[in-house]
Amino acid sequence: MNTKTGNLSGAYDKTAIVREETYRAIVGFATEKEDFEILISHFDNMNKNLQLKLIDEITLRNERDFVSPFLEELILKYPSDIKIRAMSNLIKMDISFALKYMNHENESIRNAYKHLTDFYL
User: Fold this and answer.
1) What percent of the chain has pLDDT over 70?
2) Which of 16, 21, 54, 109 has its C-alpha lying 20 to 30 A from 47's C-alpha?
3) Is 113 in contact with 98 (CB distance < 8 Å)?
4) Rounded to 5 degrees, what are φ and ψ at 48?
């Protein structure tokens, strides 16, 4: 508690920082599918930068059958910056996975696809 203001936010901020640093360490050392499954279950508890880092790391270190469903879920359910990173990694894995988003019914998904293809072309 901040004795000058009576505010408890200082304690919360420290807890959040420790939690994020713990997640960051786990992401950095994760190598097994089970490690990534645990991290995925905590995805919504992570800050945006750590979510983006996890997307990159999981793409590099795991097999396609495990990674692509996770990335596809992110594309369908998360905000544009997460969609774009997930789609970018999906394209890097195999362009054919991402082609199905070219004419997707969801406008934000089509826009993410257009953003990426404009960038790469």
Assistant:
1) 87
2) 109
3) yes
4) -60, -45
- What does the DSSP assignment read for 26-46? HHHH--SHHHHHHHHHTGGGS
**Phi, psi at 7, each rounded to 5°:** -90, 135
Domain coordinates in residue numbering, the chain: 9-120
Q: How many other C-beta atoms lie within 10 A of the C-beta of residue 64?
A: 13
Residue 7: which pLDDT band, with cuts at 50, 70 and 90?
very low
* Cβ atoms 18, 41 nearer than 8 A: no
Query: What confidence score (pLDDT) does residue 89 get?
Result: 92
The 10s digit of each residue's pLDDT in 52-74 is: 999 999 998 767 889 999 999 99
Q: What's the CA gap between 81 and 109, in Å, rounded? A: 11
Compute the distance between CA of residue 18 and CA of residue 16 in angstroms, rounded to an integer.
5
Distance CA 42, CA 101 (A): 26
Query: Rounded mean pLDDT of 36-54?
Result: 94
What's the length of the chain? 121
